[in-house]
Amino acid sequence: MENPLLLFPQLNISASKDKSYYKVMKSTIKEEPHKASKPGAKQKRNRLSLLLQKSEFHESDHLAKPGNLTKAASVSPEEAVKWGESFEKLLSEKAGLDAFTKFLKTEFSEENIEFWIACEDYKKSKTTHELLPKAKTIYETFIRKDAPKEVNLDFQTKEVTSQNIEQPIITTFDAAQNTVYRLMEQDSYPRFLRSDRYLNLVKGRNPGRPTLRRRSRSFTVNDFQGVRPDFTVW
């Protein structure tokens, strides 16, 4: 008897087995990732839920911390009123100095208060060895021509300070500091007392919180009662 494969060459048993096996494996491959995707998606949802809960927790925790509130919020109206007594009183308190510095930044003149603070720190030097590096830093930052934070000094004060910088002493910057102090006292300080930042503190408001604006009044049917239309425009 002849081999049936020779009589029917198109009949290939092994090939059909291979195809059947391929179909079974293909369906298995499709099913396995499908099954695995379900717990993966569930895990992703769980992780997303946890992340949202954590973010809400940290956000509420962040807002609740006193250190994250603006410093101005801790200033009482009574304390703010005292700042208006004198410029010296304003600078003598840390909260007042901070509020005034922020105000000068809005006017792009913060170099004046920064120079004054640097001079105050300079005068606290305990040894002569500390004076020279500090003096050169102050001079290069605030006094020399085209300094990055050059303050406005008259020619004579600037010249005397520049000559004394090579052998600095505790009083080297006194003349320059006094000049800048008077400039802030006579010019910036009055504007600060008239600013919204200061007035809000006196009224017990937080300057960091924007004031609420009243919504524009919407028209209602009652607004048009008794109004006769002018048909001439038609």
From TrEMBL:
**Record flagged with keyword Nucleus:** no
Q: Could you tell me the keywords of this UniProt record?
A: Signal transduction inhibitor
> Which residue positions does the secretion signal occupy?
none
PROSITE patterns noted in UniProt: RGS (PS50132)
- What InterPro entries is this protein classified in? RGS, RGS_sf, RGS_subdom1/3, RGS_subdomain_2
Q: Name one GO biological process term.
A: negative regulation of signal transduction
Pfam families the record matches? RGS
Query: What is the designated name of this protein?
Result: RGS18 protein
Q: Which organism is it from?
A: Chionis minor (Black-faced sheathbill)
Q: Which gene encodes it?
A: Rgs18
